[in-house]
Amino acid sequence: MHTNTPELRDKTIYGVVAEFDQPSKLVAAGRVVHHEHGYTKLDAISPFPVHGIDDAIGVPRSILGYIIFCCGSIGFISVASLIYWAGGISYKLVIGGKPLFAWEPSIPPIFEGTILFSAFAAVFGMFAINKLPQFYHPVFNYERFGVATDDRYLLVVEASDPKFDIVDTQRLLESLGAKHTEVVEA
Amino acid sequence: MADLAVRNDPHVRPRLVEGDPSLHQVTEAVSSIIETRTPYSWWIAIAITASIAGVLKLCLGWLVYNGIGVWGNNQPIAWAWDITNFVFWIGIGHAGTLISAILFLFRQKWRTSINRFAEAMTLFAVACAGIFPLFHTGRPWRAYWLFPVPNTDLYMWPNFRSPLVWDVFAVSTYATVSALFWYVGLVPDLATIRDRAKTKGRKIAYGVLSLGWRGSARHWRNYEMAYLVLAGISTPLVLSVHSVVSFDFAASLLPGWHTTIFPPYFVAGAIFSGFAMVVTLMVVARWVFKVEHLVTMKHLENMNKIMLATGTVVGYAYASEFFIAWYSGNPYEKFTFLNRAFGPYWWAYTLMVSCNVISPQFFWFKKLRTSIPFMFVISLVVNVGMWFERFVIIGTSLHRDFMPSAWGYYHPTIIDMLTFFGTFGLFLTLFLLFLRFLPMIAVSEVKGMMATQKMHDAHLEAVAQAVEH
Fold first, then answer.
1. CA-CA distance, B368 to B362, in Å (whole number)?
2. Residue B11: pLDDT band by 50, 70, 90 thresholds?
3. Residue numbers in A near B35 (CB within 8 A)
4. Helix B81-97 to helix B414-437 angle, to the nearest 10 degrees?
5. Chain B residues touching A151 at Cβ < 8 A
6. What is the complex's ipTM, to 2 decimals?
7. Chain A contacts of B170, Cβ < 8 Å?
8. What is the pTM for the complete model shown?
9. Do A134 and B183 touch (CB under 8 A)?
10. Which helix (H) or strand (E) holds A105?
């Protein structure tokens, strides 16, 4: 059914999905495909983060940390300026002869503001970089996709890869110990 | 019995998942809880808890209709059960964040089985806590005045020098960040439930909730970074929340409140009470839902050890307060503490010390800290004790301060009691809904932990074989 048939070739092909039953096999196969055969348009789907997969298939480091740092700094500056504005400019209120603005009592709200902005950046930044919510993705067309959120590990080679060949790629993945391979439509 | 021998051998680390199940069996064990037909017992349980939550609703409605006078608060005890209950519930929440954030940073792998559960507890406890200051304002629809929002009916800003304003910032940030952290952890598991869903309704509901998560390596990379940062910022956050709560008292000039020991003392107490609540709920839940192989005796024992440690810290804080009261030479301070232990509230003080200081000491004995009925009873006792701790701090310091002509004694009204009782209904109702609709154990984290352990075992085996040859 899901082999290299002529009618499948006419449709837009997203890529080949190979299913592995061990995380170590996924990493090993990914390494061969990426480092030895030079494929670059790769992805791995797993029910939990598999260690070593990023180097194996060439996933770059997350940039999320920088985003969080920037947003955290914005939080810090915003709450500090809010307090300065409220007590020092907008409504000058002398309490017990104390200065209109001081750092010491402002630290708790500024700290909480920094944390709040950072947390929003961490969560929504992560969703944004991951392009979530995204309710359709070609990889969901893999017939047995449900196993990838249970106990199987998928290696995806996209058709847009310059080295992609519908026959050779599938054979390569099978030779690397894949339990099941399938051509997936876009 | 070999299993028992291994368990009692201090050199062998007990397995965090018992019976060596496959990853699929773990998915099955957790997911099936929310996929099977709703059991009758659940309907009965939620009918009871929702009725109790209804009592809360009636009490709050009555309060709004009549005013704060329906509570027993009055001079000199202007802060009474409401603030006691607020601090009590906020404290309960702290264990959840400790488990999800601090134990994560310390790479304590045993947290994976209990973190989802404890985080849910945090959220629901904070929701219960928020009710009290909100309704103590008397006009909860004006609660936004607490936030620095420019508005047309109050031409002022909040006083940022006040710990009460810090508290608004701390608690609202805490509630928000806890909810975000919890949701992030849930997304991969919701995707698992989505992929297992049989009916269209479930497919849509869990599909939307899981945002189309597909477990791509590129996703996991950012996910792990987000999780690490959330753990990193939640750690100082959780410590700051109860510190700020303690500033509500410590920044006043009242004897018994005005001490520098309050922030660490409150934080230790919060973790202590929170773990007691996790044990109370977990002992029941793991038995009802048959996940004893995922939440093992090792998990319960570790939590009991944390209760022992934090309970002892709390005991030390009680002793230290007394010492400082004497050592400071401040007659008011000294009187407050003598009055706390031997005055009209001696019964509350005695109850507090026996529940919080004495009862956790039983956990020095392995036999007792690994006995389910025993730890269940102790966890309840600790919860009672920690409620009384907050009451003792608030009530006894206020009821006799500087001027004897202004002394008094606090009597709670029936509305006070029913409101507090009602929050348990709300808490348990939310918990039952959580257990019914969301995976109670962080499946993807447990699976990740098991895979790491398996790799570690394989490595050890390889080393052992290499040594043999």
1. 7
2. low
3. none
4. 20
5. 22-24, 27, 447
6. 0.91
7. 108, 112
8. 0.90
9. no
10. helix A103-129
Please check the confidence at residue B1 and state whether its pLDDT lies above 50. no
CA distance B102 to A72: 20
β-strands A13-20, A42-45 pairing: unpaired
Q: What share of chain A is helix, strand, coil (3-state, %, to 5)?
A: 50, 15, 35
Q: What pLDDT is stored for residue B102 in this prediction?
A: 87
Backbone angles phi, psi at B373, to 5 degrees: -60, -40
- How far apart are the C-alpha atoms of B175 and A72, rounded to whole Å? 18
SS3 B458: helix
**Which residues, including other chains, have CB under 8 Å from residue A36's CB and lie 6 or more apart?**
none
Q: What is the mean pLDDT of chain B?
A: 90
pLDDT in tens, B186-205: 999 999 999 999 999 999 99
Helix (H) or strand (E) holding A10: helix A6-10
| Residue of chain B nearest A156, judged by CA positions | B216
Please write down the long-range contacts of B286-291, taking CB distance under 8 Å and 24 or more positions apart.
B289/B33, B289/B435, B289/B440, B290/B29, B291/B29, B291/B30, B291/B33, B291/B440, B291/B441
Domains of chain A and CATH, by start: 11-60+139-185 (3.30.70), 64-129 (no CATH)
Q: Secondary structure of chain B: what % helix, strand, coil (to 5)? A: 75, 0, 20
Compare all CA atoms of chain A with the CA of B161 and give the residue at the minimum distance: A105
Cα distance from N-terminal residue to C-terminal residue, chain A = 17
Nearest to B184 among A68, A82, A123 (CB): A123
User: Tokens 């100082």 — which residue?
Assistant: B236
Residue A43 to residue B225, Cβ atoms within 8 A: no
Segment (H or E) for A13:
strand A13-20
Checking if the pLDDT of A5 tops 60, the result is no
- φ, ψ for residue B153, nearest 5 deg: -105, -5
Instruction: Classify residue B427 by burial, with Cβ atoms within 10 Å: 0-12, 13-18, 19+.
Output: buried
pLDDT of residue B375: 94
Contact A109 B229 (CB under 8 A): no
Handedness of CA B26, B32, B35, B38 (dihedral sign): negative
Enclosing H/E stretch for A19: strand A13-20
Cβ distance B211 to A106 less than 8 Å, yes or no, reads no
Please say whether the beta carbons of B128 and B427 come within 8 A.
yes
Cα–Cα distance between A1 and A16 in angstroms, integer?
Answer: 14
* Min Cα–Cα distance to chain A from B146, Å: 13
Residue with structure tokens 């495909």? Answer: A33
Burial class (CB in 10 A: 0-12, 13-18, 19+), B329: exposed
What's the rounded Cα separation, in Å, for the pair B305 and A85?
A: 48
Look up tokens 């002398």; give the residue: A94
Is B325 within 8 Å of B294 (Cβ atoms)?
no
A154's CB contacts (< 8 A; 6+ apart) are: A17, A18, A19, A20, A26, A44, A45, A46, A139, A142, A145, A148
